[in-house]
Amino acid sequence: MTDLSNHPPSSRPLRAGFSGFLRTYYIYFVLVAVVAVLSLANLDQFALFERGNFLNKRNIINILRVSAPLLMLAGAFTLLMVSGYIDLSVGSTMSLSAVVYALLAINGVPFLACFGLTVLAGIGLGAVNGFLVVRLKITPVIATLITLSLFKGIALLLVQDGVSAIKSIGEQRMPGWFNDYGRDAVLLGLPMAFWVAVGVTLALIFAQNRTLLGKYAAATGGNPVAARLSGINTSRVVFGLYMLVGAAAALAGIARSSFMSLGDPLSGDGMELSAILVVLIGGTAFSGGEGRVLRSFVGALIIMALTVGMLTLVPAYYQTLVIGAALLAAAASNHLISRKEGMA
Q: Does the pTM exceed 0.70?
């Protein structure tokens, strides 16, 4: 048995403090390491910041631009998982929202109306998940797997026979403004979709740190029985978080639809896996009670940097393996740091 007397009490706060520092900031070190590796990987061919190098301005802008949908989802998904729940239908919600947005636009509905109606539709889809989980008491994984198929089926039905997506065909054309939101630069070379994602993230960081929503979500995920006994309406909290995730998925669908110039009923496929990876890499506990919106935002940047960066460095059939290995390393690091903190 270890003799604890050999470890001076004064050293324990130092170890605990260092472990806490790592746990809080390790995700930023991972991002810096990923950027450094990708930037130096082809330095023999392209100088730093030169076209072809990862740090080229155009490449960074492209990464941030295509990151908008995942960045939209990261914060809301984090709060839901902090509460101890999960939504596997976010990809299908995103796809259906993209189809709804494109369908409204191609039929002459103005931008603001398209935007607002699509977000309302996303909130409604989130409410369906909330009803199944909170009211009918269906296990979250089962309930949202059901709606994953349901929402995807509706999205496919909304696309007319003979075409794969809602898009300009013949005399029916998308309006001129359709691409502006996801493509046109409004600040620092980045489109409005990216800045909306940043604004949503900042709002959710504020909500998590300064409002009852963040406190109630953590309490619900940490100890739901104690939360209920303390007077928190955990059912209302979870229901509201599902609607919040639905709204975020709708915003992600709008961004993807605008960027792609069409409403693809399969555009959100796999997004649920990406969202889960983002929050886990960011340190969110799968069991609930712990997680930070900002760290998930950084996790999304790591995933997108790896995804885009690997395109020019690794053969296509190795890319998934390399990205998976990097994500596993980040998740394992988070787990080891958590264990050390708990033992401190």
A: yes
